């Protein structure tokens, strides 16, 4: 069985390399020749732990190739995975489906043998049925093209592990007509299924919704704890202890209850907005109206961080040296899409602070987005002369730093822990004024 993967971004590149790792011959397809050239040389255009090695190995062995040609892909693949982007539409909340529509239409038209198109992109519910019509209408006479919906749940930073050993797999089928496609997909994933990964077989609509529901739930969990952190800040409580305590209830669980600057990235923010837009189109806007509040709580955290920094600097940031630690939306990633860290750094700069940003991997991407910030290439360079150190992305390097390491370098020993990952006692004992989002409004005397 031969596999193609349409789209070679985070999702597609990871999926292509992982399919090669499972033993398949894989052809990755992208309309961007620069990306195809880089990947064909075994070079990964972004940072993802473990993926560069996998790519090099399988490009080296010839099992994994890349092309810009849909014609080549149509002759090659028995299964075509669709992993192109569904970005937020400019000026709107809805998802932009142009790339998915084009990919499905093009591959269906190019297929010269019976095949299955497996949609992985995150799409508005109802898309799969529409795409199945596009596929059928585009297919050549005598070529059977079936579409399944097979959403992807990978997290950046854990993309390879999540793809090879997912918590579950979901397969949305076109009713009874989906029997051949189901059999093909069970073969593709045979190794994972044998190792016990649960497979949920359902209809198109449920499969599409599983993905957006999962992301909406995760976003809600984060905003729930961040909303509570607004309370603990006012009363002087400790949001981390609160999260630990409620998280011990198995029905709640401790994961995704880390309060701080909030969620960002290429998925959660756009997916909750797209779900709201889709619900409104379907006439059930009120069903997910709470997601507007989830979004608002999340955005408020950014303003609260800027406010906290301002207070720590005595009421004005103008001309003050601020060390910003982190630019990526989360650690182990160089992705700065909708990153709270970078947004906060830009806001501080826009109100007059002298901002030095250091991120172990995301400086280059951040500089493309906000060229006017000062990017430095070490933690030491960032904190030298700082009147406040602001930790915004919880890289291991930042979690491991100590007051003794920073104290000789900073101008004023104060730190804002935007991710609640440092030990307040350690920093206070080390002579720092420590403040955290949701932990203690005032430094302990
Ligand atoms: C997410 C989903 O987890 C994944 O299943 C889906 O396929 C794509 O979207 P990802 O965007 O890679 O994955 O990151 P994730 O680990 O979910 O983190 C999202 C954001 O939430 C990050 O900005 C992170 O810092 C933030 N976050 C996460 C918190 O602020 N608190 C938490 O407790 C957890």
Write structural notes for this entry.
The protein is an alpha/beta fold and 445 residues long. The chain folds into 2 domains: 196 residues, NAD(P)-binding Rossmann-like Domain (Rossmann fold), CATH 3.40.50; 216 residues, Rossmann fold (3-Layer(aba) Sandwich), CATH 3.40.50.720. The protein has 19 helices and 14 strands. Strand 5, helix 6 and strand 6 form a beta-alpha-beta unit. 49% of the residues are buried. Bound molecules: uridine-5'-diphosphate-xylopyranose. Uridine-5'-diphosphate-xylopyranose binds next to helix 10.
Question: What is this structure, in a nutshell?
Answer:
Helix content is 45%, strand content 14%. By secondary structure, it is of the alpha/beta class.
Strand and helix layout:
Elements: E1 2-6, H1 10-21, E2 25-29, H2 33-40, H3 51-61, E3 64-67, H4 70-76, E4 79-82, H5 98-110, E5 115-119, H6 127-138, E6 145-149, H7 159-164, E7 169-173, H8 179-188, H9 190-194, E8 199-203, H10 204-235, H11 239-247, H12 268-281, H13 290-312, E9 321-325, H14 340-350, E10 354-358, H15 363-369, E11 374-375, H16 379-383, E12 388-391, H17 396-399, H18 403-406, E13 414-417, H19 424-429, E14 433-436
The structure holds uridine-5'-diphosphate-xylopyranose (UDX).
Uridine-5'-diphosphate-xylopyranose binds at residues 153-156, 215, 218, 222, 256-258, 260, 262-265, 267-268, 329-330.
Active site: 267
Pathway: Nucleotide-sugar biosynthesis; UDP-alpha-D-glucuronate biosynthesis; UDP-alpha-D-glucuronate from UDP-alpha-D-glucose: step 1/1
Family: Belongs to the UDP-glucose/GDP-mannose dehydrogenase family.
């Amino acid at each position: 069985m031969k596999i193609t993967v349409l789209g070679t971004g985070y999702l597609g590149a990871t999926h292509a390399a992982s399919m090669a790792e499972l033993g398949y011959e894989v052809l990755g397809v992208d309309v961007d020749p620069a990306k195809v050239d880089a990947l064909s040389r075994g070079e990964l255009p972004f940072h993802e732990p473990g993926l560069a090695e996998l790519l090099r190995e399988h490009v080296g062995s010839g099992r994994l190739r890349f092309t810009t040609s849909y014609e080549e892909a149509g002759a090659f693949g028995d299964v075509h995975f669709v992993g192109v982007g569904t970005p937020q539409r400019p000026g709107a909340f809805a998802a932009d489906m142009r790339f998915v529509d084009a990919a499905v239409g093009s591959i269906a038209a190019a297929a010269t043998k019976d095949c299955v198109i497996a949609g992985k992109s995150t799409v508005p519910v109802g898309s799969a049925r529409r795409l199945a019509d596009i596929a059928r209408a585009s297919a050549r006479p005598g070529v059977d093209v079936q579409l399944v919906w097979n959403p992807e749940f990978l997290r950046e930073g854990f993309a390879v592990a999540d793809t090879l050993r997912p918590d579950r797999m979901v397969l949305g089928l076109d009713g009874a007509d989906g029997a051949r496609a189901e059999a093909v997909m069970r073969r593709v994933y045979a190794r994972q299924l044998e190792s016990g990964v649960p497979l949920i077989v359902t209809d198109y609509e449920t499969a599409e919704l599983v993905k957006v529901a999962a992301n909406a739930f995760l976003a809600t969990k984060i905003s729930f704890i961040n909303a509570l952190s607004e309370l603990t800040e006012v009363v002087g409580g400790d949001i981390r202890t609160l999260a630990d305590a409620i998280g011990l209830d198995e029905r709640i669980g401790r994961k995704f209850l880390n309060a701080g600057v909030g969620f960002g990235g290429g998925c959660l923010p756009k997916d909750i907005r797209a779900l709201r837009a889709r619900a409104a189109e379907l006439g059930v806007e009120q069903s997910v109206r709470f997601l507007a509040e989830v979004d608002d709580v999340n955005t408020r955290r950014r303003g609260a961080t800027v406010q906290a920094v301002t207070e720590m600097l005595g009421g004005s940031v103008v001309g003050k040296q601020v060390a910003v630690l982190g630019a990526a939306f989360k650690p182990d990633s160089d992705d700065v899409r909708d990153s709270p860290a970078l947004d906060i750094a830009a806001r501080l700069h826009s109100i007059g602070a002298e901002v030095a940003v250091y991120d172990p991997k995301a400086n280059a991407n951040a500089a493309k987005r906000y060229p006017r910030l000062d990017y430095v290439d070490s933690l030491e360079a960032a904190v030298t002369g700082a009147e406040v150190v602001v930790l915004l992305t919880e890289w291991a390097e930042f979690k491991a730093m100590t007051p003794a390491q920073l104290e000789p370098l900073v101008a004023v020993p104060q730190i804002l822990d935007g991710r609640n990952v440092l030990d307040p006692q350690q920093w206070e004992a080390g002579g720092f004024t420590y403040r955290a989002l949701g932990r203690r409004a005032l430094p302990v005397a």
